[in-house]
Amino acid sequence: MASRTAAAAVARSPILIVEDRDSLRMMLRRALESNGHRVVEARDEPEAIEQLRASAPAVVLSDLRLPRGDGFGVIRAAKELDPELPVIVMTAYGSIQDAVAAIKQGALDFLAKPVDPDHLLLLVGRAVAQRRLVAEYLLLKEESASRRGLPEIVGSAPALRQVSLNVQRAAGSDATVLLEGESGTGKELFARAVHALSPRCAERFVAVNCAAIPEALLETELFGHEKGAFTGAIGRKLGKFEVADGGTIFLDEIGDLSLPLQAKILRALEERSFERIGGTVTVRVDVRVVAATNRNLRAAVAARHFREDLYFRLAVFPITVPPLRERSEDILLLARHFVERFCREMNKPVMAIADAAQDQLRDYRWPGNVRELQNCIERAVILADGDRILAQHLSLHGGQQAVVERHDPWTDIDLSGSLPEATRRVVEEVERRKILQALEQAGGDAGRASEILQVDYRALVSRLKQYKITPS
Question: Is the whole model's pTM more than 0.70, yes or no?
Answer without folding.
Answer: no
